[in-house]
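CORE FACILITY INTAKE
Project code: CF-77B
Contact: R.S. (postdoc)
Sample description: multi-component assembly, two entities in total
Requested service: structural model of the whole complex
Turnaround: standard
Below are the sequence entries exactly as provided by the requester. Do not edit them.
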Amino acid sequence: MKRLEKVKVGYRVAIVVGLLLLVTAPLFVSNWIVFVVTLGCAKGMVVLGVVLLLRGGLISLGHGLYYAAGAYAAAFALNRWNIREIYLLIPLSLLAGGGMAALTGLLLRRYRGIFFAMLSLAFSMILYTVLFKFYDVTGGTDGMRIHLAKEGVPLFFYYLTLVLTMGVIYLGRRIIASPLGYMMQAVRYNEIRVEYMGASVGMVIYFTYVISGMLGGLGGGLVALNVGHVAPELAYWTACADFVFVAILGGANHVLAPFLGSIVFEFVKNYAFKFSPNTWQMTLGGILLLIIFFLPQGLWSLTETIERKVIQWQLSSKQ
Amino acid sequence: METAAIILFDGIGFASWLFLISAGITFIFGVLRILNIAHGSIFALGAYMGAWIGGRFLGGQYPTWLSFPILIASAAIVAFTIGPFIERVFLKRIYQEEEVIPLLTTFALFLMLEDAIKLTWGIEPRFIDKPFQMMGQVRLGGISFAGYPFLLTGIAVLCAAFLWLIVNKTWFGRQVRSVIGDREISSAMGINVARIDTFAFILGSFLAALGGAFIAPMISVEPGIGIEVIVLAFAVVGIGGLGSVGGAALGCVLVGTARAAAVHLYPELELFVIYALMMFVLILRPKGFFGGIEVRRI
């Protein structure tokens, strides 16, 4: 009992220290690191959406759809309707992602396994072609710029993203621990028994899907406002596959895992770009293979290994 | 009328090429139960190998008719080296995992192969246009068509017949069908399932590499062709039903004509039409046209 509590205290200390580090980070690290962490957190939200579905055994190869929907919603609102209020733009991206998911989810909830993956991929590619080809409206391949240029904007966005990330993590925890979250896990193992229990598998998947779409839109909006530019590639299938990649990289066992995975991924991508500009894809592919073969539960499982080690060490030292 | 004829012939030419690639994907899925994203890279490797052997290695100094054996040989080289490598080293470890793991493994291989291609052959486009010029022009009903797509159609039909013969009329094919039906029972009956897996993967890869080698004379071989082709092949196998080669053929004809129609009538919609088609088919028939029924476990 004592020991378990010690581990719990250890976790709390780690969380507080991590939070302090994140909050004070802009004081002692360079700007690009702050920027990369911001992107990592924002994309982590999208990955959390993917992970929520993955917990139910559903592979979303089309989360670029909601990501791009959120990003373009922010860009449209800014450029066409001249809405400059960030506190309006961000809910708008969230609604765009959620609304889109509410539509596609009606169809997607009937599919499982590889067919779910392929149909969601098709939806995402349709949005990609629309964004790509109708350049009068969407700017085509060039995409659209987002002008929010003011002093101190990156720092403001960093803290905004951080606050939103905390909120998302809290809500994510609640969702995973809610009946919906448990039901989703049950769907992964045996759908028919969930139906026998009296729950509607379709509704469980649908609600999870809409939540996951909202997360996608929110992440997309934040990334768009941060980078200041949107392009159709946000919805391309390689972008979608990257989210699943990060989901596996981080792991699906904890709500923090997607964010850890996402931040690590952003850094790895940046360094791979820098040190091996010709082989960065190879580096990413190699890392993915290593994770799949040697750390199949993702980076987060390392913390569990450490926890086990600590408990073992305590047990052996007490005797 | 004239436009309709052009659309039809264009569509069939495009469909034949697409068939070579998607037949491989769907065949591999049928046997191994893996949706192979790295298939796009194998296609690109085939194209590069063909262009390289024809263009650089032989320096273009060979009689034109010899380019066809060269193209077939380069496809075989790719299939018999890369195929077993991918299957034996990576895929055989993950057959038991849930669907997301094989999908991501092949995605990782795809990323690595894309860079490997760039490192080996550089980023400048390559050409091997002798075969294309050799086929010349064909005049049909007052419209002149390039002759090469007809050759592609011939090859696609030949490959389809070949595949059908292998699967339905040979000892190997009987084992393959047995493995498709039930891996465990096949293994218990004395079939070497691991070897069937490898050969099936090589066969599928050969089709993709062949598609790459024979499309090389029509296009400029450059980085990124693998990415484009895989999204098309996904749409085709989605429409036809995963695991069904006949379905892939139907999907190719549908996608090919739809794309050709879009290109001639409303070019903005090219890729959109293909995916909208896939969406509609999947909505009406959730497993595609010829997708099998899966048993739900209680």
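Facility notes:
- The beta strands of chain A are 144-145, 229-230.
- Residues 41 and 259 of chain A are 6 Å apart (CA to CA).
Invoice: internal transfer
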